[in-house]
Amino acid sequence: MSGNDDLGSQIEYLTRALKTPTIRRCWAELADRARTDGWSHEQYLAALLERQVNDREANGTTLRINAAKFPAVKTLEDFNFDHARSVPRDVIAHLATSTWIAKGENVILLGPPGVGKTHLGIALGIKAAHHSYPVLFDTATGWAARLTEAHAAGRLPQELKRLRRYRLLIIDEIGYLPFDSDTANLFFQLIAARYEQGSILITSNMPFGRWGEVFADDVVAAALIDRLVHHAEVITITGDSYRTKTRRDLISNDQ
């Protein structure tokens, strides 16, 4: 018995030194199962390591999702494709693999309010986090405030460099508020710094033809669009607002 106790203490020490808490927690349970089922030493080792890797990947995903600053957790599994019939399911399924992020490509979701653009943006960001990509989310006005603050402090180049560690930036709700020319130029610097280097996902209620109204200048808007769409999947979503439909259905059911 004391030999087993000594072995357990040694494993406790070694797993702490190696920072493998899952192995520390489950080695004895799996050892009992291995003896009962007649596993080989290799099968037992593989089972232990698989448990550790799975837990570590799950913890890493949770950390990346928290660090992304999503306003809520939205998944593709929860998305109502039956309402948003114009959304191409096959294209979204491909984007869910996150292979476009490895290539530094972009995704642009265009459409009126309430058709699910933000939901899809967050859901694809969460898929990216599951595929081990660092993600950062903010609204267009939030990004404007971040860039303006960095520029005013004289550290815009450092901020743009820092943002490169995020393989995916999500800019939500372009078009809801117009920007002045200074802010438009800051957005251009952000897009230019990411060009073919890191991915951007944008949602907008404005078609490209009206981005000049958003960025105070048709030339700046054209330069932004040119860099964004060069390597991009552009999805235009049509239809009625899901929120408005839900409200109408509630009112109808109450009557």
Question: Care to describe what's here?
Answer:
- This protein is of the alpha/beta class.
- The chain has two domains: 2-68, no CATH class; 76-245, 3-Layer(aba) Sandwich (Rossmann fold), CATH 3.40.50.
- Helix content is 59%, strand content 11%.
- The protein has twelve helices and five strands.
- Strands 2-3-4-1-5 form a five-stranded parallel sheet.
- Helix 9 (181-194) links the parallel strand 3 (168-174) and strand 4 (199-204).
- Helix 2 (21-37) runs antiparallel to helix 3 and helix 7 (140-152) crosses helix 9 (181-194).
- The longest helix is centred in the first third of the chain and has 28 residues, at 41-68.
- The protein is elongated, with a radius of gyration of 24 Å.
- The mean pLDDT is 92.
Helix content bin: 55-70%
Into which percentage range does the β-strand content fall? 5-15%
Poorly predicted runs are none
CA-based shape: elongated
**Overall tally of domains:** 2
Roughly what is the average pLDDT, rounded to an integer?
92
User: Could you state the CATH homologous superfamily of the largest domain?
Assistant: P-loop containing nucleotide triphosphate hydrolases
The name of the CATH architecture of the largest domain is: 3-Layer(aba) Sandwich
Give the structural class. Answer: alpha/beta
- Distance between the amino and carboxyl termini: 74 Å
User: Reading side by side through the largest sheet, how are the strands ordered?
Assistant: 2-3-4-1-5
Report the top-level CATH class of the largest domain: Alpha Beta
The CATH topology of the largest domain: Rossmann fold
Helices, by number, come to 12
Radius of gyration: 24 Å
Order of helices and strands: HHHHHEHEHHEHEHHEH
